[in-house]
Amino acid sequence: TLAERANLAGVRHIVLVLSGKGGVGKSTISTELALALRNAGKRVGILDVDLCGPSIPRMLRVQDSAVHQCDSGWVPVFVGQDKAIALMSIGFLLERPDDAVVWRGPKKNALIKQFVTDVAWGDLDFLIVDTPPGTSDEHISTVEALRPYQLLGAILVTTPQ
């Protein structure tokens, strides 16, 4: 729809951070990449679609923040004194940051689609998408929701073993 296009219209590059297993540092890589790009003068957003383990709000010390609504959807949380990193995570939607999310596929997929279409990102040079571990429905939903934008790249995080 037109509204969907509008929310990602100002995003120049989308990078997915993926791995085949958990605990390899996807969220750390996503966070460090965002900070490095910000330090290079880029406008950066992070979309945390790791619904069962949303750690990026804690890593960026904004876990107590709340998201707000505007005419074009959710307003992401802006990180740092310069507000140079925009962040959206399910962590902001939980009553307590350590609450577990126990949802079946359709509900997870609907939230991911909503994150892609209903967040007012504004103008960004890079949107980094931190994904959950493995190769599940969430990954397919994320890629399918982002496919119309054809701005996609990926970083695959691995470990030596």
Secondary structure blueprint with pairings:
Layout: H1 2-9, E1 11-18, H2 26-39, E2 44-48, H3 56-59, E3 68-70, E4 73-75, E5 77-79, E6 85-89, H4 105-117, E7 124-130, H5 137-146, E8 152-156
Parallel strand pairs: 1-7, 1-8, 2-6, 2-7
Antiparallel strand pairs: 3-4, 5-6
SSE pattern, N- to C-terminal: HEHEHEEEEHEHE
Arithmetic mean pLDDT: 83
Helicity, in percent? 25-40%
Number of domains: 1
Kindly report the spatial arrangement of strands forming the biggest sheet: 5-6-2-7-1-8
General form? globular
Tell me the Rg in angstroms.
14 Å
CATH class: Alpha Beta
Low-confidence stretches: none
Rounded to the nearest angstrom, the distance between the terminal CA atoms is: 44 Å
- Please identify the structural class as seen in this structure: alpha/beta
> How many strands, what sense, and barrel or not for the largest sheet?
6 strands, mixed
Total beta-strand segments: 8
CATH architecture: 3-Layer(aba) Sandwich
Strand coverage percent: 15-25%
GO molecular function: 4 iron, 4 sulfur cluster binding; ATP binding; ATP-dependent FeS chaperone activity; metal ion binding
Protein name: NUBP2 factor
Keywords: 4Fe-4S, ATP-binding, Iron, Iron-sulfur, Metal-binding, Nucleotide-binding
InterPro entries: Mrp-like_CS (IPR000808), Mrp/NBP35_ATP-bd (IPR019591), P-loop_NTPase (IPR027417), YlxH/NBP35 (IPR033756)
How does this model look, in words?
The chain is α/β, with parallel strands linked by helices. It has a single domain (11-157), classed as P-loop containing nucleotide triphosphate hydrolases (Rossmann fold, 3-Layer(aba) Sandwich). Helix content is 30%, strand content 24%. The strands form two sheets. It has a six-stranded mixed beta sheet with strand order 5-6-2-7-1-8, sandwiched between helices. A two-stranded antiparallel ribbon has the order 3-4.
